[in-house]
Amino acid sequence: MKTIYILWLRQLKRYFRSKSRIFGSLAQPLLFLLALGFGFGPVFQKAGEGNYLQFLVPGIIGMSIIFTSIFSGMEIIWDRQFGFLKETLVAPVPRFNIMIGRTFGGATVATMQGILVLILSLFLGFRPVSFMLILPAILMMFLSALLFTALGTAIASKLEDMQGFQMIINFLVMPLFFLSGAIFPLSGSGALAIVARFDPLSYSIDSLRVLLSNINNFGFGIDILVLSAVTLIFLGLGSYFFSKVQI
Amino acid sequence: MSIISVKNLTKKFGNKENAVLAVDDISFEVEKGEIFAFLGPNGAGKSTTIKMLTTILSVTSGTLVLDGNDVKKNPNEVRHSFGIVFQDPSLDDELTAYENMEFHGVLYGVPKKVRRERIEQLMQFVELWDRKDSLVKEFSGGMKRRLEIARGLLHHPKILFLDEPTLGLDPQTRNHMWDYLRELNKTEGITVFFTTHYMEEAEKIAGRIAIIDHGKIIMSGTSEELKKNTETKTLEEAFLKLTGKDIRKDEAGTIDRMRMGRRMWTRK
Predict the structure, then answer these.
(1) Which secondary-structure segment (H or E) carries A125?
(2) Alpha carbons B78 and B97: distance in angstroms, whole number
(3) pTM of the model
(4) If we measure between CA atoms, which residue out of A183, A177, A33 comes closest to residue A118?
(5) Least CA distance to A83: which residue of chain B?
(6) Could you report the per-residue pLDDT of A98-126, keeping only the tens digit for each?
(7) Chain B 75-134, residues with CB within 8 Å of chain A CB atoms
(8) Is B259 on the interface with A (CB under 8 A)?
(9) Cβ neighbours, 10 Å, residue A106
């Protein structure tokens, strides 16, 4: 338990110490909210879909979470490079605990980033349906963050250096984001809607839309079910790959 | 009773056609409470052997037993019996010196009271106590090295591995460190296994020395025995006689390439 706590704490300390990272990673969501939110707002309205910002914000929170989570998970590569990974790997504690500590730390960081985007969006005119539902929304953010941090951990355990990193961003994170219905409604998008069913981020964003904007696609129960199941699978996969890491 | 027992250990890197034999069928034993040194030119297989002994690198073939536990079968139990100071850096740059120590203490289950006491004592010892709240990234190479040594001594394991621990340390700190280690070796019976390039260090400190080259142990024994068997006057002469005078090529590994890449990537 102590192992998990100290590794979790380490992730948080690193996060709070790199102010440039906190603000740097807010720039992208802000740009998306401004450019898309206000750019497509009128078109969306004319098409009879209602307020676009109300629709978009959960999607951008999801984006922020997937980017931060996968990046946090992949910090293993940095640690390998700086040599710190060795220090944890020779310690007399099960590797499973190390992986869990790191993953929970990364997920906490990503959740905070999601909360920051939510706060930011309030200033742009976003109004959650009920402030009572913000807490459950944060819990859903954490579940999604856990899912993608575990995925990042699983991938990073398999990578030797940063060379694969750009590829992961381009061929995994970007498609997951754009195919998730984060920026457009899935209903009536034909084949895309089918593809989106295989994208866990679709369920993350859908659950946030239910809680924050009262818009629903798959149904909240399905969202929780899918997210929990996929999180468990990725945690299993991540801890298996991590247990096989060599220096 | 031997606390480290290595039999026919072999490590191959790469696939079958162009495999590199880093460690080639070596066997040796280290007795409990002994101070044992591994000497060898760059690329001889010293660090590879230590990595296998400390469970972070897989073994191609052979058996390794540490304190009665098989490294391949029970890596978790094995990790309880040793501590290690690595050859290359292994600190978290974004944490303070104190936090790095604390992190280590918690991971190794050192009780809080002992941990606090020892951290202060060891950081005084390596003269970093006044810098305890500085981030490690602000430290010079020598300071980082000293911190790693202090961290390696924080818990008192049965076996302590030191992979070129004195590299980049000034003679003062070096002497200081070895005095401390000899004391620990005497009072707590900690077995010390180290590698070094400093002959006088091996001669002065180690009870037994193994000379390794091209993945094979060429000769082992006390420094007297090595000198006698090679008919030389000093350990350095014995070493050169056994390993030749060619300078070894040390290939840049993935880690070095990544460090290069990192310079281009970092946020600063």
Answers:
(1) none
(2) 27
(3) 0.89
(4) A33
(5) B90
(6) 999 999 999 999 999 999 999 999 999 99
(7) 76, 79-80, 82, 84, 86, 88-95, 99, 102-104, 106-109
(8) yes
(9) 31
Angle at which helices A19-32 and A52-73 cross, to 10°: 150
Q: What CA–CA distance (Å, rounded) separates B233 from B231? A: 7
The confidence score (pLDDT) of residue B20 equals 87
Angle between helices A19-32 and A2-17 (to 10 degrees): 70
Biggest distance spanned by C-alpha atoms of chain B: 57
Largest interatomic CA distance in chain A:
62
Candidates A6, A17, A94; nearest CB to B103: A6
Q: Which residues pair with B161 in a beta bridge?
A: B84, B193
The pairing of beta strand B82-85 with beta strand B159-163: parallel
B94: chain A residues, CB-CB within 8 Å? 13-14, 17-18
**Nearest chain A alpha carbon to B58:** A246
Domains of chain B, with CATH numbers?
2-81+157-265 (3.40.50.300)
Say yes or no for a CB contact (<8 Å) between B90 and A84: yes
Give the whole-angstrom CA distance, residue B98 versus residue B111. 16
Extract the tokens encoding B124: 């005084």
ipTM above 0.95, yes or no: no
Cβ neighbours, 10 Å, residue B174: 17
